[in-house]
Amino acid sequence: MKRLLSAVVIFSLLIACKEKRKDIIEEVSVKTDTISKVIEPKKDYPFTWEAANIYFLLTDRFNNGNTENDVNFDRTASTGPLRGFKGGDIQGITHKIEEGYFSDLGINAIWFTPVIEQIHGSTDEGTGNTYGYHGYWANDWTALDPNFGTRKDLETMVKTAHKNGIRVLMDVVLNHTGPVTDIDEAWPEEWIRTQPTCDFATYETTTECTLVENLPDIRTESNEAVELPDALLAKWKEEGRLSQELDELQLFFERTGYPRAPRYYIIKWLTDYVNNLGVDGFRVDTVKHVNENAWSELYKEASYAFENWKKMHPEKVLDQQPFYMVGEVYNYGISSGREFEFSDKKVDYFAHGFKSLINFELKEDAKKDYESIFRKYNKFLHSELSGKSVVNYLTSHDDSHPYDADRKDPFRAANVLLLTPGASQIYYGDETARDLTIEGTADNPVQGDATLRSFMNWDELDSLPRTKEILHHWKKLGTFRRNHLAIGTGRHKRLGKSPYVFSRTYVEGDYKDKVVVGLDLPKGKKSLWVKGFFGDGTKLYDTYSETEVTVENGKVLLENDFNIALLELKE
């Protein structure tokens, strides 16, 4: 919290001096019809990771910005449904940033699946023939996969995101390589293990084992020095960068004093993207399958790289936030507080470099009433998890039991996800009700992930009024959430039970943010109780209906057909 306090103090001083800073998002939106464009006044928005609006996308399934890189390494074999490359790439993400798609949705951080070079071949894990379209099957951590784009593409994407006030989260894998295929050899035995397969019964049988069959596990617990694989050296030589890679490794190990054990090579390769491009954070995959000390080391080196990049590029620095890491500890829930429990051991991953963990609990909590959800999350985030946070989600790429899988009520889904305390993770297509039940994909825990990974439904956004209406609702809530730290990291209090009205208050140093939200409101005339929070005569603005109101007799009166109100102080 001390870091956050420092950031807010700096922010306040900058406002007083009226200096233009890159850590403030400035938007000027043109008023058009109420469906096609969210009306945004020009405003300054402070940022904290505890309240981040994160957009998570599968790089291969979001947007095809360059059709010329759709096929590489002769990846032409037939695959199971949604198990092959579909053309999405880094340029496609950049184009959507430039179009303002993310800014209009209130997004201030983008998490995209790994773009490092994947295995060249395909394999069948019992789900049909599959290529590494998802990015989690590493072949070479030092190179990008041409299906996703080039290093220049990634550099451009990061610069474009920062220019638009959006931070960049790279998805990183330290736990395993890609599977062995007919054309992809296993890494040397001193680097990886191929057995036993994890049974998850104990800490050891969760960390020192292969996650699934034929997914070679990096020996991340080992401190034994190993040689680089001959195949990797040959590849670098053919690509004309052998000397450069070896020289950089020499400097890394001399600086750090680490042994040349497998995890340290990979940590060096991953943090190069931070040092060279200014990536703001990592989403870390398969966290509980690696000894937690490795995550402390990754965070240490990533933070060093981030600060070095800032020193080398002072004119490109977006803000003064420290490097950020959010971890995927599968099945961690906010109710666990600081500790994740194995059968024989408890681990506090927050003490090993993680600011946040992905919260697997909200998809079930979402079935409860709003107040029960908000009160619970407010309690945990201001007690056991004070100074830390969780990243909430309702759907994802590998959760075969998402909330509202049939997309029956995307409006309520938005209300729950974007108004629950903590950071939020919109999974691509949540905001457009992208179909999660694709015909021909198996509906079971093993194969169910394919149905979650269809291509983004841009065509429906262009042609279906219902889809535009859904997106409009997500934009309204997303921009309100981005504009107000109080929503994600403020203190929650119910003001009225029927209709349901609550307040959020965020105070840090000289910075204060207060908002009131009403949900499940009646159509037509409605009265929102704000007594004790906003005094009589206070002028407010309902950003949802775009209406100015004044508090009278402890109430705000509105008349419209919306069942939601998002009230902020009128400037």
What oligomeric assembly is this protein in?
A: single chain
- Low-pLDDT windows of residues: 1-42
Mean pLDDT: 92
Largest pleated sheet: 8 strands, parallel, barrel
Strand order of the largest sheet: 1-2-7-10-11-14-15-16
- Shape, principal axes of CA atoms: globular
Structure annotation, total helices: 16
Strand content: 15-25%
Radius of gyration: 24 Å
Provide structural commentary.
The chain has 571 residues and is an alpha/beta fold. The protein is built from 16 helices and 24 strands. The protein has helices spanning 2-17, 59-62, 90-99, 101-104, 151-163, 204-207, 230-238, 242-256, 262-277, 292-312, 362-365, 370-381, 410-419, 458-463, 465-483, 485-489; strands at 53-57, 109-112, 116-118, 123-124, 129-130, 138-144, 167-172, 192-193, 217-218, 281-284, 324-327, 340-341, 346-347, 356-359, 389-392, 423-427, 491-496, 500-508, 511-519, 524-529, 539-542, 547-550, 555-560, 565-569. It has an eight-stranded parallel β-barrel with strand order 1-2-7-10-11-14-15-16. A six-stranded antiparallel sheet has the order 17-18-19-24-21-22. Helix 9 (262-277) runs parallel beside helix 10 (292-312). The longest helix is centred in the middle third of the chain and has 21 residues, at 292-312. The chain is globular, with a radius of gyration of 24 Å. It starts with a helix and ends with a strand.
Summarize the topology.
Blueprint (H helix, E strand, L loop, with lengths): L1 H16 L35 E5 L1 H4 L27 H10 L1 H4 L4 E4 L3 E3 L4 E2 L4 E2 L7 E7 L6 H13 L3 E6 L19 E2 L10 H4 L9 E2 L11 H9 L3 H15 L5 H16 L3 E4 L7 H21 L11 E4 L12 E2 L4 E2 L8 E4 L2 H4 L4 H12 L7 E4 L17 H10 L3 E5 L30 H6 L1 H19 L1 H5 L1 E6 L3 E9 L2 E9 L4 E6 L9 E4 L4 E4 L4 E6 L4 E5 L2
Parallel strand pairs: 1-2, 1-16, 2-7, 7-10, 10-11, 11-14, 14-15, 15-16
Antiparallel strand pairs: 3-6, 4-5, 8-9, 12-13, 17-18, 18-19, 19-24, 20-23, 21-22, 21-24
Helix pairs in contact: 3-5, 9-10, 13-15
